[in-house]
UniProtKB/TrEMBL annotation:
Belongs to the peptidase S1 family. It comes from Betta splendens (Siamese fighting fish). InterPro entries: Glutamyl_endopeptidase, Peptidase_S1_PA, Peptidase_S1_PA_chymotrypsin, Trypsin_dom, TRYPSIN_HIS. The lineage of its organism: Eukaryota, Metazoa, Chordata, Craniata, Vertebrata. It is found in: Secreted. Residues 1-23 form the signal peptide. The gene is prss35. This is Inactive serine protease 35.
């Protein structure tokens, strides 16, 4: 995306200040507290070694949409325990299957009803591209962008602990077999070091980053302002092409790659991606062999995005059409079900697996905090009406109390730290 005109940024800045001021007076901007069910291990058994031969599928079809899901009976406790049971694949190629039990399900707060909107935006990228390339290393390697990682199978992911990455299940498993390359799976973290030296003492370096901190409700605008300043500097140096080319080469993104120790995928996905319910479980967790020294982003649970005053989601990933670059975007949610978020955030293959986040206040505090509330699955053809007719959306899998309990259990290895979201 090109430079953002100042006449566009100024109204956005004013709007952000007004929204932030209103937020101080409203509990609607506060993270809700959830009583989370407990997911506990029952039994683990060894399985045969996978073939690791499945091709990557960038686009899924046949997803059971909102109207379709309304007609389905509520899953029984046995069915939920089956969906949340999981496979673990280790770096030596072996795998196990773990069955689980779910306790305290009735204590979890019920979700609100489905919310929809007739507003229609863009599919993948149509017309004006609203994505922002974070090309400045001194910015892309700072929180929250630094939590975004690249998966060696061609997807994105997000750090949810010092050594765990949340991504999409279809980036690991086709529904029938693990993808080619998963046996040697790696995760790439953007390097901070550049020719100027670590920390970047030039323009846009560490000193300027400190001045950008703070400011309730302004960060999205500041993110775009920084990108705009970068683009304006490029425009001023058009007459010095050779120098610009050398500068671009010095800023070319590079990754520090880390091997994956083990991968966990829910059984709800490993039953054939053609099954409509599979999209609800399109998430996986990767445990890294070595924890990178990068801040992670916590998980959060929110019953409705559209009922929030802003109603927007944000995510950053490594889109295929901008190789190696981190791409940030935000948009409104068009429709939402209990398990999926339907929207038209501009995205391309490669961004699948990105962590979808929002920013709310911590309970009883004025401090704002970003949390991951979903995983971007990608462009999908969805059965919205239940009669087989397909409509295309960009879809994200939302973190429900049950999924929070499972992912938290995978990360901590115990359910004792996963009772409150």
């Amino acid at each position: 995306m090109g430079p953002i005109p100042l006449r566009v940024l100024l109204p956005l800045t004013v709007l952000a200040v007004v929204v932030a001021a209103a937020a101080e007076e409203s509990d609607e901007y506060t993270w809700p507290q959830w009583k989370v069910p407990l997911v506990r291990k029952r039994r683990t058994v060894p399985l045969s070694t996978p073939e690791f031969s499945a091709p990557f599928q960038p686009e899924l079809s046949g997803t059971c949409g909102i109207e379709c899901q309304r007609r389905l009976p509520s899953p029984s406790l046995d069915a939920l325990e089956h969906f949340l049971s999981y496979e673990t694949v280790y770096e030596n190629g072996t795998r196990t299957f773990t069955s689980v039990s779910v306790q305290g399900l009735s204590e979890a707060t019920a979700w609100s009803g489905n919310v929809s909107s007739n507003s229609r935006h863009k599919r993948e990228v149509y017309g004006t591209d609203t994505r922002f390339t974070i090309s400045d290393k001194q910015y892309s390697t700072k929180y929250p962008f630094s939590t975004s990682v690249k998966i060696s199978t061609g997807c994105s992911g997000v750090l949810v602990s010092p050594k765990h990455v949340l991504t999409a299940a279809h980036c690991i498993h086709s529904g029938k077999d693990y993808l080619d390359g998963v046996q040697k799976l790696r995760v790439g973290i953007l390097k901070e070091k550049s020719r100027r030296g670590k920390g970047g003492k030039g323009r846009g370096g560490r000193g300027k980053a400190k001045r950008r901190k703070g400011g309730n409700g302004k960060e999205e605008v500041q993110e775009k302002e920084e990108i705009n300043r970068k683009e304006q500097r490029k425009e001023k140096s058009k007459g010095r092409k050779s120098r610009s080319r050398r500068s671009a080469e010095s800023e070319k993104p590079s990754f520090r790659w880390t091997r994956v120790k083990q991968t966990q995928v829910p059984k709800g996905w490993i039953k054939g991606a053609a099954d409509g319910l599979a999209a609800d479980f399109d998430y996986a967790v990767l445990e890294l062999k070595k924890a990178p020294k990068v801040k992670h982003m916590d998980l959060g649970v929110i019953p409705s995005i559209k009922k929030l005053p802003a109603g927007r989601i944000h995510f950053s990933g490594f889109d295929d059409d901008r190789p190696g670059n981190l791409v940030y975007r935000f948009c409104s949610v068009s429709q939402e079900s209990q398990d999926l978020l339907y929207q038209y955030c501009d995205a391309k293959p490669g961004s699948s697996g990105s962590g979808v986040y929002i920013r709310l206040k911590e309970p009883g505090q004025k401090k704002w905090k970003r949390k991951i509330i979903g995983v971007f699955s990608g462009h999908q053809w969805v059965d919205v009406t239940g009669d087989g007719r397909q409509q295309d959306y960009n879809v994200a899998v939302r973190i429900t109390p049950l999924k929070y309990a499972q992912i938290c259990y995978w990360v901590h290895g115990t359910s004792s730290e996963c009772q409150i979201a």
